[in-house]
Each structure stands twice: as C-alpha cells, then as structure tokens.
UniProtKB/TrEMBL annotation:
This is non-chaperonin molecular chaperone ATPase. The chain holds residues 446 to 718 of 729 of the full protein. It is found in: Cytoplasm. The lineage of its organism: Eukaryota, Fungi, Fungi incertae sedis, Mucoromycota, Glomeromycotina. Belongs to the AAA ATPase family. AFG2 subfamily. It comes from the Eukaryota. Residues 50-189 form the AAA+ ATPase domain.
Length: 273
C-alpha cells in the first residue's frame, strides 16, 4: 500500500499576468528562483548559493499556490504538487518512502519545483503527539530534512512550501540551507484588488456602471479568492433575476457584496504581522 496516490508532474500554465498585484513578492520570488537558473555564473562569481527552499505564508486564498504555479510556468520548470497530509501513511516506513519518492521524481524532472502545500501538517512540533512515540509527522519531517541536507545535492530543484500556520512549523525546517527564505503573502492591498477585479471582469460581461474602483474599495480585507467568489456571486444574481441575462450589473455586485462575510479578520492579520 503506497502512502500516496501517484506523484504527478504538472504543467500548470499560470502566468504572472494572471496574478493581480502582489508585485513586491513576485519580484522576490523571481530573484530567488529564476535568477539562479538563468544566471548561474553570476551566483558562482559572487560566491552565493541559490536558496533550496522558500516558505510562503499568509491567510488563505491570497495567491500562494498561484505564485508557485506561475514560477514554474514562467521559468519552464516542472511542477510537483504535494499536500502535507497526503504523505501520511499508517504503514511503517511508507511515509518516509513517499517523501523520498517525491524528491527522486523532482531530481529526475529537474529543473523543477516541489510545491508542498499545507506544510504545517508534517511539521507539528516534536513531542506533541498523544501516544508518546515518534509520530508519523516526526518521521516525515526527518526524511524531509535528510532530503534537504542531502548526501545527493539538490541541483535545480527548489522547494516551495506554503502554510497558513507559520507559527507551528518546526524551526529545524527553517534553518539556513533548508527552507530559509520566508516570504509573507499578504491579503491584496487596494491596487492589487483593483488588478484582480480587472483580470476577472475581463472574462465576464458587465454593464458600464460596474466600477472597478468602487469594488476594490469595498473589498478591503478580502482575499483574492474571495474577490473571485464575489464576482461569481454577482453573475449568479444576474442569472437569478433572469436566466437569459447577458450582462452583470452594478446592483448584482452590490448584492453579492452585501451578502458576503469576510473570512480574514483583523485579528488574523495581526497574527501574521
Ligand atoms: P490556501 O492557503 O487556501 O491554499 P492560497 O494562498 O494558496 O490559498 P490560491 O490557491 O493561490 O491561494 O488562490 C485561490 C484562488 O483565488 C486562485 O485560484 C485565484 O482564482 C484567486 N486568487 C487569489 N489571489 C489572486 C490574485 N492575486 N490574482 C488573481 N486571482 C487570485
């Protein structure tokens, strides 16, 4: 019994232009992943090593996955996506084997990115399991550290990990030489929200009274995912009114906004800051 369904190589097809705003973080990602691949001689000349791993943290729905995919697409990297919990198996040894297999595939497919979503699942702080023994999470973590520190060097394989819970991640994983670039992906600011609406509304059919500026202002504190879902709700409102509707009007957006509850609270943002 394998711990995991087959590891799939993906070709994501997400471009930087699909991501609204978040320019600063995108620039940092390009520097740390694209530069080493495109200008390896500059790195060796200056005597620095490209990062092995990057942690993206922040509230849900704010484009962490989207960014990892765009990195792969734009730099022509193979993409292997794994969710932390997928690595767990109750069978002794199977979880470690699954981790080894992920890295083996990534090396074979290099240049590549391994995207570990929900990385917090496998890095619960040591000794916190209830039965007192070495937990599966501990074993998976040890194997992951082995791979990062590797006897076999990781050449042109970058680990991008994502989490909503940076606070529970084992510090061992974040030491220099491991996942040592840590980037906060914040909820979109006003200009990023404007961009997200612009990208989304281009795909929709709306009347002239739909005002991006107004929508961006009204969605302060929303994630990108929430903005997309507000647009979808607005279109459903239009259909609800008339199944033959050809356009979405401002009032549909207003209705969608008024029935919407934000998932990201100010307390959450404080937690990440
Ligand atoms: P989670 O922590 O829940 O895994 P995430 O930060 O990885 O979330 P994504 O999966 O990247 O979030 O985003 C979810 C969806 O929200 C995307 O598929 C996209 O439709 C939309 N979205 C989020 N941010 C943006 C953005 N900046 N521009 C355009 N779309 C966005």
């Amino acid at each position: 019994p394998s711990a995991m369904r087959e590891i799939l190589l993906e070709v994501p097809k997400v471009y930087w232009s699909d991501i609204g705003g978040q320019k600063e973080i995108i620039q940092k990602l390009k520097e740390s992943i694209e530069w080493p691949l495109q200008h390896p001689e500059a790195f060796s000349r200056l005597g620095i090593k490209p990062p092995k791993g990057i942690l993206l943290y922040g509230p849900p729905g704010c484009s962490k996955t989207l960014m990892a995919k765009a990195l792969a697409t734009e730099a022509g990297l193979n993409f292997i996506a794994i969710k932390g919990p997928e690595l767990f198996s109750k069978w002794v040894g199977e979880s470690e084997k699954a981790v080894r297999e992920v890295f083996r595939k990534a090396r074979a497919a290099s240049p590549s990115i391994i995207f570990f979503d929900e990385i917090d699942a496998l890095t619960v702080k040591r000794g916190t399991n209830s039965d007192g023994g070495i937990s599966v999470a501990d074993r998976v973590l040890s194997q992951l550290l082995n791979e990062l520190d590797g006897i076999e060097p990781l050449v042109n394989v970058t680990v991008v990990a994502a989490t909503n819970r940076p606070d529970i991640i084992d510090n061992a994983l974040l030491r220099p030489g491991r996942i040592d670039h840590i980037l906060y992906v914040s909820p979109p600011d006003l200009s990023s929200r404007r961009e997200i609406f612009r990208i989304q509304l281009k795909k929709m059919s709306c009347t002239m009274d739909v005002d991006i500026e107004e929508l961006a202002t009204e969605t302060d504190g929303c994630s990108g995912a929430e903005i997309i879902s507000i647009c979808q709700d607005a279109a459903l409102c239009a259909m609800d009114e008339n199944l033959e509707a050809k356009e979405v009007r401002r009032e549909h957006f207003m209705k969608a906004l008024s029935s919407f509850t934000r998932r990201i609270t100010p307390e959450m943002i404080q937690f990440y800051d």
